[in-house]
Amino acid sequence: MADATARTFPVPTGLRWSAATAAFQVEGARRADGRGRSIWDDFVDTGRLVKDRSTAEPGPDSYHRSAEDIALLHGLGVDRYRFSISWVRVQPDGRGAAQPAGLAYYDRLVDGLLDAGIVPFPTLYHWDLPSPLEVGGGWLERDTALRFAEYAEIVGAALGDRVKNWYTINEPVSTSLQGYAIGELAPGRQLLFDSLPTVHHQLLAHGRAAAILRGYGATAVGIVNNHTWVQPATDSEADQIAAHVYDLIHNRLFADPVLTGAYPDVAALGIEMPVQDGDMELISTASEFYGVNFYNPTTIAAAPEGAPVPFVQVPTPGVAHTGFGELWGIQPHALTAFLTDAARRYGDRLPPIVIGENGASFPEPDEVSGPLDDSRRIDYLASHIGAVADAVAQGVRVDEYTVWSLLDNFEWADGFTQRFGLVHVDQRMSKRTPKASYEWYRALIAETKSAQARA
């Protein structure tokens, strides 16, 4: 088994440690206690859009087994736990009164974490839009941002006395581009550039929710996006232009409004965002942190003439890749490059960064009889923590690092075919078995905390 105490990479001093999950991916119990339907229920229930035709049941079944999750987190020694609150457990139809049983689950979870000495760091929205809102247009409609504010009000009132740290929206880029533009994720629409009003409405929802949560005593509120370091496939002018356009749409279209109060210039692409008076001021209200999810670099080439979009993603040359395939290249210095570029671009408008997700999936068996030796995951995590340290050494402030994921879980359109967890989960029996990476992360956290105490 891999040596869990070995470490030959730099670690930033004072970094907080966390692990993450998301409600739909780990909770199971889709029909329990009045839970409503989300766009992911609709997506998986078609029976053909998920790779292995799985339905997230039972999976880790955290709705019934959260005490086991808390024990695992306590064993790791993490400072914080990033989990998400299911909108449809709280408001089954996305509007109206709260569902008491749903709120009670999160109430118990928060209390359990606090009792274990772990700071709860929930995400209000991790992709589970209530189905009735999608029928009404979903994130294409401004009204969804208003409904989200009502949901934030309910959750803030219920948990704000104990929860002081919040993520508002998770990965709006994935919802907009994969969910509404090309249909790889729920709700499965294929609108291409016509999907982009969803960007503005998610950012508006973030701004409204952040103000509400602060009204309930929150001290740290921020959005988190899936960012990537974009590289042209060649030095050709066509590839460089294509990479620039992709960077605008994947990274800057989401970061610029939050950090500068303005969208990047996308008029040349025929894009006009549905901005109304006061929107940009609300969206760009200063946040206590900016969340970055990072998995891989993105290499872009010019698309063939006549293609519906001007770019195409190609494998990053000369790098290994994760279990997701050759487009998920492993290039740790790309994380350093993204972080240092963001610091240069946004300057003092960039608040402290929180790495909200970082991790890797590799092929692993569905059942195990003991701890799994996942040395490739350990190598991936170690090299990316080192990449964070390199960025910090160049002046970037990063306050927190979060592993995705605590548990093997339902990996969206890939179902149970991809495993990111520090803990193996038998998806039929919900049995949890820590992997070598769990012990490695535990040892790393203990060692760094001990070094800080000695300093």
TrEMBL record:
> What EC number(s) does the entry state?
3.2.1.21
Which Gene3D superfamilies would you find in this protein's record?
A: Glycosidases
Catalyzed reaction equations: Hydrolysis of terminal, non-reducing beta-D-glucosyl residues with release of beta-D-glucose
Pfam families from the UniProt entry: Glyco_hydro_1 (PF00232)
What keywords is this UniProt entry annotated with? Answer: Carbohydrate metabolism, Cellulose degradation, Glycosidase, Hydrolase, Polysaccharide degradation
Q: Return the similarity comment.
A: Belongs to the glycosyl hydrolase 1 family.
What is this protein identified as? Beta-glucosidase
Organism of this sequence: Microbacterium murale
